[in-house]
């Protein structure tokens, strides 16, 4: 049987025990047009990353603001995320990293495609590019730094140059991390595809030539960031470099929260990560950094655990597993059942029940077959039929419907009540307060349906 989350089989990733996550939200994410991160923002992001269990982050070290934020993060004395630097391929940039005491690792940008070498960098040949990059790598190693070689634009590069160049990189630093940068999102996750596009074949061949550590850094220009990152991990990469909410240049990067949620819920061996603060984290980025998180954003969007349509709400009410990929609590979210143009009577019943509980202060139960539920549903649908409404029905509006149909008289109500009273001997005062004397207090009620009212012990009302 597969009717609960814990009954679903998990994927066995070949090298799951070796996989780690690094974050570049405060480096690549800062390059997103219109985003300005203050020191306080960076420190708060650092705290959230720590709560999530992220092993490493990278940051710019270009100016005093960058250095001050980096030092402040290290002052927390957290074991993770490790604070690392980022540099262009020149000794001067590496010197800036060295000025921040405590940083033990830096990435070095090594632009590898023809357009980057010849047009952006203005270099004359592959040989000139190779010399520049290897000299910078040697300089970092000579000064005691662990290194990452950021092989920029690998998915548009000439691999007759790329593979021999990377062999020389690992000769200088056998433990360097080779970052596969799919800079424009040209990569694809298909194992049959050759270089430069095929992420699986690139990762496999890097392993074959002796690369010990491979990191995926994938942009999302074609919407394949997460797929390409996972393909890299599946075929042997042991690091994923990500940004929270996928922020970054153009279409951004592979999303930290998506990769982490997939690993936790779908793959064996990732209990080390914790997503309970990510919904709060997303709200922080919206409120303080100025991002706008789409309502349907996977993992953290406000609609992720919101349900309106009749089929879906009925399924959720009976078993949330039916239409939710994981429990809201996993990501600090909250389930929200809504009433709109596609809603059925089951969610109207539930919302009416909730409203009655709040209005009366006693626990009640309403049957789906109750004619008043059908009346409320019909009135709501008439409103949408007339195209008078473009939003869902709020909880406050639902209380008004409940007051109208359950607590106050409406046309035809007296006749219906008399008929029901004769059949079921219903105590009218417990259904409609208007019939109740001012000093009359009902003993208790657990149902506002055709069922008889049940009393609890000592005649006291059963509170919610």
Whole-number average pLDDT?
90
Query: What class, by secondary structure content?
Result: alpha/beta
Distance between the termini: 34 Å
Main sheet: strand order:
1-2-3-4-5-6-7-8
The CATH class designation of the largest domain is: Alpha Beta
Strand content of the residues, in percent? Answer: 5-15%
CATH second-level architecture of the largest domain: Alpha-Beta Barrel
User: What count of helical segments does DSSP give?
Assistant: 15
Spans where pLDDT lies below 50 across 5 or more residues: 425-464
The helix/strand order is: EHEHEHEHHEHEHEHEHHEHEHHHH
- In total, the number of domains comes to 2
Whole-angstrom Rg: 30 Å
Beta-strand segment tally:
10
Tell me the CATH topology of the largest domain. Answer: TIM Barrel
Q: Would you identify the CATH H-level superfamily of the largest domain?
A: Aldolase class I
Large-scale geometry: elongated
Largest sheet: 8 strands, parallel, barrel
Provide the helix percentage.
Answer: 25-40%
Describe this structure in words.
- This protein has 464 residues and is an alpha/beta fold.
- The protein folds into 2 domains: 13-273, Aldolase class I (TIM Barrel); 345-459, no CATH class.
- 39% of the residues lie in helices and 10% in strands.
- The protein contains 15 helices and 10 strands.
- The strands form 2 sheets. The protein has an 8-stranded parallel beta barrel, surrounded by 6 helices. A two-stranded parallel ribbon has the order 9-10.
- Helix 12 (345-360) crosses helix 13 (371-385).
């Amino acid at each position: 049987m597969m009717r609960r989350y814990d009954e679903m089989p998990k994927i066995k990733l070949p090298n799951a025990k070796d996989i780690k996550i690094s974050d570049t939200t405060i480096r690549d994410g800062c390059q997103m047009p219109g985003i300005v991160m203050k020191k306080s923002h960076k420190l708060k992001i650092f705290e959230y990353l720590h709560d999530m269990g992220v092993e490493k982050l990278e940051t710019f070290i270009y100016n005093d603001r960058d250095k001050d934020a980096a030092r402040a993060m290290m002052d927390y004395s957290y074991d993770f995320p490790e604070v690392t630097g980022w540099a262009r391929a020149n000794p001067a940039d590496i010197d800036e990293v060295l000025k921040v005491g405590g940083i033990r690792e830096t990435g070095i940008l090594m632009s590898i495609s023809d357009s980057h070498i010849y047009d952006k960098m203005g270099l004359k040949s592959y040989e000139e590019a190779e010399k520049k990059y290897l000299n910078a790598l040697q300089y970092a190693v000579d000064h005691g730094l662990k290194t990452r070689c950021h092989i920029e634009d690998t998915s548009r590069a000439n691999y007759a140059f790329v593979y021999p160049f990377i062999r020389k990189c690992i000769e200088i630093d056998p433990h360097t991390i080779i970052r596969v940068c799919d800079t424009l999102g040209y990569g694809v996750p298909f194992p049959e595809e050759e270089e430069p596009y095929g992420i699986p074949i690139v990762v496999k061949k890097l392993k074959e030539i002796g690369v010990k550590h491979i990191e995926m850094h994938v942009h999302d220009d074609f919407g394949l960031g997460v797929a390409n990152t996972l393909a890299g991990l599946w075929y042997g990469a042991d690091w994923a470099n990500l940004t929270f909410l996928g922020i970054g240049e153009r279409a951004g990067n592979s999303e930290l929260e998506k990769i982490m949620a997939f690993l936790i819920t779908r793959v064996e061996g990732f209990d080390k990560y914790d997503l309970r603060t990510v919904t709060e984290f997303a709200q922080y980025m919206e409120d303080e950094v100025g991002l706008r998180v789409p309502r349907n954003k996977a993992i953290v969007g406000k609609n992720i655990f919101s349900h309106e349509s009749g089929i879906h709400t009925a399924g959720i009410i009976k078993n949330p597993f039916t239409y939710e990929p994981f429990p809201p609590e996993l990501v600090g979210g909250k389930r929200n059942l809504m009433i709109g143009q596609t809603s059925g009577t089951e969610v109207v019943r539930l919302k009416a029940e909730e409203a009655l509980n709040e209005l009366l202060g006693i626990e009640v139960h309403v049957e789906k077959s109750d004619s008043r539920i059908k009346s409320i549903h019909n009135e709501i649908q008439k409103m949408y039929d007339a195209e008078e409404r473009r939003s869902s029905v709020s909880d406050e509006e639902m209380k008004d419907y409940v007051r109208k149909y359950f607590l106050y008289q409406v046309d035809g109500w007296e006749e219906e009540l008399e008929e029901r009273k004769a059949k079921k001997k219903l105590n009218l005062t417990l259904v409609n307060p208007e019939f109740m004397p001012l000093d009359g207090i009902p003993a208790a009620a657990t149902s506002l349906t055709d069922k008889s009212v049940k009393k609890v012990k000592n005649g006291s009302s059963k509170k919610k």
